[in-house]
Amino acid sequence: MSKVSSKIEAKDYSIADVLSNKKYTIDYFQREYKWQQRHIEQLIADLETSFFINYDDKHERIEVANYNSYYLGPIVLSNKDGKNSIIDGQQRLTSLTILLIYLNNLQKDLPQKVNLDSLIYSDAYGEKSFNLDVPERKHCLDAFYMNGEYVVKDTDDETVKNIAERYNDIAELFPDELKGKPLLYFIDWLIRNVVLVVITAYSDDNAYTIFETMNDRGLNLTPSEMLKGYLLSKVRTQTQRDDINAIWKKQIKDLHELWEEADISFFQAWLRAKYAVTIRPGKIGAANEDFEKIGTRFHTWVKDNTDKIKLTSANDFNDFVTNHMVFYMKVFTKIYEARKVFKKSLEHLFYTQQWGFGYSLADSLLLAPIRLEDNEEIIERKLNLVARYIETFAVYRGVNYRNFSQNSIRYTMYNLVLELRDKPVDELGKLLAKKLNDSKENLEGILRLGMHGQNKHFIKFLLSRITAHIEQESGKSTSFETYFFNPGGKPFEIEHIWADKIDYHSDEYKQLHEFNEMRNRLGDLILLPRGTNQSFGASKYEDKLPHYIKENLLAQSLHETCYSKNPNFLNYIQQANLPFKHHNNYKTKDLNERQELYKMISEKIWNTDDFLN
Q1: Please, are residues 279 and 411 in contact by the beta-carbon 8 Å criterion?
Q2: Assessment of whether the complete model's pTM goes beyond 0.85
Q3: What 3-state DSSP class applies to 26?
Q4: What does the pLDDT read at residue 381?
Q5: What is the DSSP code (8-state) at residue 370?
Q6: How far, CA to CA in Å, does 576 sit from each of 253, 271, 564, 572?
Q7: Domain end marker among 396, 419, 441
Q8: Can you give the C-alpha Rg of the chain in angstroms?
Q9: 1 belongs to a structural domain
Q10: Same domain as 165, residue 18
Q11: How confident is the model at residue 544 (pLDDT cuts 50, 70, 90)?
């Protein structure tokens, strides 16, 4: 091996240094982008917290240069013939690229901007190529860069689908508090004060050796392992240490079957749910407290807060692991299993998996009221009540165009954790109902709700819940899964009742933007199987109407035949006092009536009285 090929360099660089006018390739076998919502959520939360420690609205932008740096982690490159191939770190760099594209779109209409173009793409001979140069992703990134949205196609691979989902996650989770005056300050800080350690090898062999060494779990202590080491050091006998170690290894192994870092998420959720007391105030520059410290270094927090956990004797440390930790790990596992597979007694956990705020908030809320002495029935009732609250809270915000950024709800939810802690089940339901009834948001927002590029997932969730609800109440066997996923069948898609033809509505609309705004209202939307909506989507309403009678009840209810052949449906709408009616024509008046109907159905689904039953 030559001197050059054996050389290894390591240096810290800002994001601007790493990405500006640089080009990176990714080997075929490493091209999959796998980050999930929880990774994006944690990244945004960490960046937000670190930025606001220093930010002061009295600062000039030049002061950002003096803000603290934030270490994002290492990346490993193989440099051959002057070209950089990413060996480790493409998940992080892909996520940063998506975030930069989002920030670039966010600042487009501002009089002043931070130039991010060179961090996203480079231009040579009139051809634009992204700095992460992966051809399969180009069409998706192009769409986000140019228009801020991308419609996933059947032919897209999992990486493109993940990129699209994570961009939408960023749009949903990005804090409102960063969108005003702090935005340019935040972008300056992100690209210049957030650093990566770039390790560059000049041969693939060396690069992969570095990668394998860094990822050898035997050589890298995770926060969970450091917590275990501390707890074992406090146990009196070697026998107890051996027993605890065996229990610990089994429990962590079981958690890793959920996903690789589930143990980290568990300890953060459990310690916040049962032991955290203090919260960082919302004011600028405030120091982190219990809830924030557990999110970053929970192993250190436990060591520094044995009084809050009531760890005084060796027996306390033993009991902390063998009883408390094991018990709450089982509950945590139950939560995640119910999110993946529908179970009637935990149905709202399944729904919140599809639409709700971030795991780092939800998990702590769910665990907070659970007590060691609760039996299985009580545990499930408590979990379902809290999950019902999370779902309803999320729907209230969603229909009012409010997002779920950590900063916008963090303080409220952390305080709610303290209120829910160890609550008996009857008190829990009353408390959660009161919280919702006192909320500034409610279902009135449905009357103004429309679909746009960033809320299609939420709109499909709403339509799936509404459609499944009226069908189940009418005695049909379909479910939310049928319409949201339809496993084993054609997926359902959102159908506009009005075709995209303003000429069909020239008697009511002259301006295209007014027509489009009304066409995207919730009252103009139903769900139809993929292909069905495409086959007659451009037809007039009167031509589509006969086809609707063959579809789900929500679509059928537009046709008069639905009201003569469905006794169960008629009984249901009479008992529920819902103003269903057929529509031979579908004008603006009809659409508004339909939107009001959707609101009334939603009030049946997300009824706070159900918390008291």
Answers
A1: yes
A2: no
A3: strand
A4: 98
A5: -
A6: 49, 43, 18, 6
A7: 441
A8: 27
A9: no
A10: yes
A11: very high
